[in-house]
């Protein structure tokens, strides 16, 4: 089942929408609180204005307070059909002048004072907001408190109206912000679309670096794509080289082998038939060696790019390569010697590649060099580790040493080998930070691996 892929656009849209939603919720709560505060403030001013207007009509004579409640004082509070308005005028001796006798004083007004005093309370089973102001009368020997109360329906309605208008404004602003955000995300992600378009328009065989203008955040992605295409191009080039080399190098021995088989099948003379059998055996061995070295070359190239390095014992790898490369049924009497320190000789490398490189050089020495001596020496040196493979054969002329490690180089005489053994060995040495060289002295020709950074001598 194919796993659905998430969209970066919708992920960003969802995240920013969530942020906008949280912001809108915070604004809505703030707007609701502000609307309630604004409604309370507005109606408190009306309550206090009514209380002051009534208080200004009071008069006192011979200890008696008289009040005339103007209609205009309560008119503004009675504008709402659902709101109820109450008032009370009380003397210090707790005698009532007029109004609702059981209307309570607001908090803090019990001791008298000019006020204003405003608070919430319950009256006749309804929550109300009550405001009080005081006026001092010497004739009445104290403060006369004027109280005006109103139920909360009108201010609640005003608070709801203010909140609704604020919510509409917040909603519109959020919608505008969301639309702008979607457009901005589309524009911000356009470089990714440009990269996609550039890649889709490319022919399959074009692996040159992308040349697309992009912001700094996408430049790393483009660099990674270019790096990947560069590595892929190298791998494809190596594969194409391997295919071309294989086709070119194997075609000739295969043609010769087919010819020898045809001659063998048509030959009736026993002696000549045996001669053709030997030729077929020789051609088959050459073809097998060529095929093995082509595969070895491909394997080493692959491992050089994909496999990591670890601590390996060069002496042990060289000994294993020597044991694998020297055939048990060798047709010549060759003295084979191996000399290495008794303790491990450690470097960082790939065991498979190193073993294959040593094996190729040893096989070259047996096939083309050694007459009676083959010597493999592993030693520590001041600069690292050296592995020397020496034989008493004719070796490679010094003037040909620079070309000897080239692929399919067989020397002046052409030879019967594949020309890959030394090229593979050099590639492995270079991959391990070392080098491959030659040395000739006193009838001994040596191929010398030098690996830098080995254990100190």
Describe the protein in words.
This protein is α+β, with helices and mostly antiparallel strands and 457 residues long. Helix content is 51%, strand content 20%. The chain contains ten helices and 14 strands. The strands form four sheets. The protein has a five-stranded antiparallel β-sheet. The chain has a five-stranded mixed β-sheet with strand order 9-11-12-14-13. Helix 7 packs across helix 8 (351-369) and helix 8 packs antiparallel against helix 10 (421-431). The longest helix has 51 residues, at 216-266. The model has no long low-confidence stretch (mean pLDDT 80). Keywords: Kinase, Transferase. This is Sensor histidine kinase. It comes from Taklimakanibacter albus.
The tally of domains stands at: 3
Going across the major beta sheet, what is the strand order?
4-3-7-6-5
Secondary-structure element sequence? HEEHEEEEEHHHHEHEEHEEHHEE
Proper CATH architecture of the largest domain? 2-Layer Sandwich
Flag low-confidence runs. Answer: none
The biggest sheet, with number of strands, parallel, antiparallel or mixed sense and barrel status, is: 5 strands, antiparallel
Which structural class do the helices and strands define? Answer: alpha+beta
**C-alpha Rg (nearest Å):** 51 Å
| CATH class identity of the largest domain | Alpha Beta
Q: What form results from the Cα inertia axes? A: rod-shaped
Helix content: 40-55%
Number of strands: 14
Secondary structure tally, helices: 10
Q: What fold name stands as the CATH topology of the largest domain?
A: Beta-Lactamase
- The N- and C-terminal alpha carbons lie at a distance of 59 Å
What is the percentage of strand-forming residues?
15-25%
The mean pLDDT is 80
């Amino acid at each position: 089942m194919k796993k659905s892929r998430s969209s970066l656009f919708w992920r960003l849209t969802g995240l920013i929408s969530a942020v906008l939603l949280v912001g809108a919720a915070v604004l809505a709560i703030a707007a609701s609180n502000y609307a309630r505060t604004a409604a309370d403030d507005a109606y408190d001013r009306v309550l206090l204005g009514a209380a002051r207007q009534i208080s200004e009509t009071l008069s006192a004579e011979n200890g008696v307070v008289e009040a005339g409640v103007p209609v205009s004082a309560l008119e503004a509070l009675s504008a709402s059909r659902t709101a109820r308005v109450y008032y009370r005028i009380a003397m210090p001796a707790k005698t009532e002048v007029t109004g609702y006798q059981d209307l309570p004083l607001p908090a803090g007004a019990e001791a008298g004072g000019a006020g204003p005093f405003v608070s919430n309370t319950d009256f006749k089973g309804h929550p109300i907001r009550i405001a009080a102001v005081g006026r001092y009368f010497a004739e009445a020997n104290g403060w006369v408190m004027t109280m005006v109360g109103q139920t909360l329906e009108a201010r609640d309605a005003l608070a709801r109206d203010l909140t609704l208008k604020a919510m509409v404004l917040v909603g519109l602003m959020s919608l505008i912000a969301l639309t702008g955000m979607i457009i901005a995300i589309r524009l911000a992600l356009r470089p990714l679309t440009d990269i996609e378009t550039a890649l889709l328009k490319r022919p399959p065989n074009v692996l040159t670096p992308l040349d697309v203008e992009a912001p700094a955040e996408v430049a790393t992605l483009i660099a990674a794509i270019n790096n990947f295409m560069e590595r892929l191009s190298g791998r494809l080039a190596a594969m194409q080289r391997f295919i071309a080399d294989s086709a070119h190098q194997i075609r000739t021995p295969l043609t010769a082998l087919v010819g020898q088989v045809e001659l063998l099948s048509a030959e009736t003379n026993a002696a000549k038939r045996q001669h053709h059998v030997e030729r077929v055996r020789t051609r088959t061995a050459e073809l097998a060696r060529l095929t093995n070295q082509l595969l070895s070359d491909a394997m080493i190239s692959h491992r050089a790019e994909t496999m990591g390095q670890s601590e390996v014992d060069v002496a042990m790898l060289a000994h294993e390569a020597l044991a694998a490369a020297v055939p048990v049924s060798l047709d010549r009497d060759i003295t084979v010697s191996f000399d290495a320190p008794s303790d491990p000789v450690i470097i960082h490398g790939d065991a498979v590649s190193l073993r294959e490189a040593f094996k190729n050089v040893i096989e070259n020495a047996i096939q083309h060099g050694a007459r009676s001596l083959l010597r493999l020496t592993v030693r520590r040196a001041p600069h690292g580790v050296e592995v020397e493979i020496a034989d008493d054969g004719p070796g490679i002329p010094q003037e040909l040493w620079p070309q000897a490690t080239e692929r399919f180089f067989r020397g002046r005489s052409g030879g019967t080998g594949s020309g890959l053994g030394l090229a593979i060995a050099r590639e492995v040495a270079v991959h391990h930070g070392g080098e491959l060289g030659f040395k000739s002295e006193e009838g001994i020709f040596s191929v010398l691996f030098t690996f830098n950074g080995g254990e100190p001598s």
